User: Fold this.
Amino acid sequence: MTVYLVLILAGLAAGALNAVAGGGTFLSFPALVWTGVPPIMANATATLAALPGYLGSAWAFRADIRRGRGLPVRLVLMVSAAGGILGAALLLVTPNAVFSGIVPWLLAFATAAFAFGPAITRQVARAGRGAPGLPQSAAVLLAVTTYGGYFNGGVGILLLAAFGLIGLTDLKEMNGLKNLVSSVLSAVSVAVYVAAGLIVWKQALVLGAASAVGGYIGAALSRRIHNVKAIRVFITLVGATMSLAFFLQ
Assistant:
């Protein structure tokens, strides 16, 4: 019962955080590891649990994606699928012991990206760089989606920073593309994880259901929350604490 209670609380909090500002993986992944799930399987299961929220957000932003004049949606879909498959394949060939050693660095990197990503994106936008060509844009997107297929933590803010580097400036379009890319890369990587038997289904169902409820609550509360900066500081502290805990472990 303690295990399921921890998963429910972590899922509720992760879903709410993802709806408001992102960073839910900082709670869902460590919770799965704490319950005894090996790190690679915990990473795969946390990605599956986050997928319904990505799909719902992508659907909510569908009009902004269609109106966007940035990257061609077909190219985004193809590169996202390729990156998700490539990242998942890299995870499959990574031994558990090696991944356990990488996890603290991945969490620390995701925390830093979450903390400084928005500032970097704003700086790139202010710099007014011309948009690179489609091959360069596709290469940047492929690198980020490969990371997302390998480890889901912090992928949303990395995508926003990548879109800023690519030259996009419309925040609604960027958010729409972010959710679309997250949905596609997570869906294909989860398909690889399922085929490889990496999903812990009992924990996935509990965590996923709780995340969906938390996401609904978070979406409702987000309209009443005005101090999003304080929430981002809180999530950054959570990520830093989890990173330190994994380093010590």
User: Anything to note?
Assistant: The mean pLDDT is 82. The CA atoms of residues 40 and 188 lie 16 Å apart. The chain has eleven helices and no strands. The radius of gyration is 17 Å.
